[in-house]
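chain below, 102 aa
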Amino acid sequence: MQKPSRPKTRRKYDADFKNEAVKMLANGQTVAYVSNALGVSENLIYRWKNQNQGVKKVSSEQSELALENQQLKDRVRQLETEREILKKARRAAPLSIFSRQT
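prediction:
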């Protein structure tokens, strides 16, 4: 008599487990070695590696945008300061270069 077959359940791996697998690859281990050591398929290791590279790409783009944003904020602050200085100079010397005479 045969046992009724149960549907295969998928194992779930947490982010730390996946990150450790990718770190092993970064340390020079082969995908086959990591796969055997952790007991997961090579396809999963490749998938985790690709996902990790995508995360790094996004974070580097975000850091570039954050740097550009900070530079633009600094430039705006500088221009506002210059504008305030020019306003004060115009008020202090109404008949100077800043005034037009018609």
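Helices lie at 15-26, 31-38, 42-92. The chain has a mean pLDDT of 83.
thats it, cya
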